[in-house]
Design a protein that fits this description.
10% of the residues lie in helices and 37% in strands. With 524 residues, the chain is mostly beta strands. Strands 26-27-32-33-30-29-28-31-34 form a nine-stranded mixed β-sheet, with no helix packed on it. Strands 1, 2, 3, 4, 5, 16, 17 and 20 form an eight-stranded mixed β-sheet that branches.
Length: 524
Amino acid sequence: MKNFIFRVVLLSSIVTLSNIYALNFKVATYNVENLFDLNNDGTEYEEYIPDNTNWNKETLEVKLTNISKVINDLNVDILALEEIESQTALDLLLAHIPQYKYNAFVKNPKSAIGIAVISKYEISNVNTIEVDAKNPHSRPILEVDIKVEDKTIKVFANHWRSKNASESTRIPYAKALYTRIKKLPCETDYIILGDFNSNYNEYDTFKYNRILNDTNGIAGINDILKTTINSTFITKDNLYECDDYVHYNLWLETPSYKRFSYRFRGSYETPDSIIISTSLLDGHMIDYVDSSFSVFMPYYLYQKEFVQRWKIDKKGFHKRQGYSDHLPIYATFSTTPKKLDNTKKLDLSKISSLYEIESILTPLTIKDAVVLYKTADSAIIKQDNDRAIFIYNAAKELETGKKYDLTVNKISLFYGQKQITEINNITQKGTETNYQKYFLQGSGTDFSDFQLQNEIITDISGYFVKKELRIGNKSIRLYAKNKNVLPPQKSNIRIKTAHISIYNNTPQLIIYSKDDYEVISIDK
């Protein structure tokens, strides 16, 4: 403990009647992006050295006002905060949000920023988890017990090493946390949350990144914390016994195209997570409220597909505008447990069922699937009165217009798009002579409808310029892996067949050959 600056403040022992009788409570995490005080401690980032630029009382007050607005509007009961410089900075923020009567803060004295938990409920116990004793700059993990009614919820607040470094620098955080968790009775109700600087599916997103992946494919958030087992997500349908200490990441509660709390170089990412113990799904003591996880993105925080971060110019001067580069995420829990109801049954012979599950535990058979499009070893298949799906690099045996039963062994998400990546047991059922009847007609198609991903669209006209197909007063990206396949710039074209796909949570049209369109005219 001597290596850490550590302080717990209990400002009040009074619990309001509304808290005593509360049944549901909300928990959130928010990286506030560098909330510094005005003391010069020698560990500040350059832009936050007092009066080095314009980080002064007036600028700090704008930052405090903006962050407190987010917190007030978020209106949760327990909140983990990342990137707080000091207890002084936290106290200045708490003066704007006095409803949070309890707080805990921890920081490595050689680090610029620390972690806090603020709460409307009593914090009854605090512990600091040391991450890497050999690294003087590693950030500790903050563990607190919070009493809600007569029950206790344990919260682990995290801020792991940034992606300026490889995965091996985040592994110690996961190991230190998991070692602590393994010492708990398996029935303990606990929440793991914060900024992990890891996507919820990091094992997949960093796989081919030679800079990040220096761990032979082992991802701390997935393989060490056991949110996945053998690259299969822990879900509410495959929960292990509690003494296996596996964890459920609440990002799986949302549609894939809504999974982001941060945007970096055009990519939507999930560095922030709320991860729960299986005991919070067991119908005893405290439980997670089903489907309550969400991202907080009011208009002032997220505009025109950009997170409204705190703005600093190229010279390091603060513009006194914005909030944070992260969006808060939150979930609801209840002191009146309700046994998880998994009675919803999917028809696993339908393509649409593949959009409802994260991974396949046992192979499943898709029946009467018609091949709408074939390119190289990939294809798009669809069932009558059901959805279409893309088979990536596993459709060598399939033929356009043929109908099949086939076994699906693996599915994945590729930048938000659902796809099949392994099939076998292929049985041809016949030929669909008029398979084009399953194509979507271009006129009036709402490309913002994510239910249309992986459909084939036909007969749509537009003007192609700067990677976009302009259709009336709307536009959509037109993509081809081989750029030579794309139409000439400033050309009016008619699409014969195009694949509606999702990339980074944005719809796009993919064409695979010049036969997929015809050029009507070209502007000189």
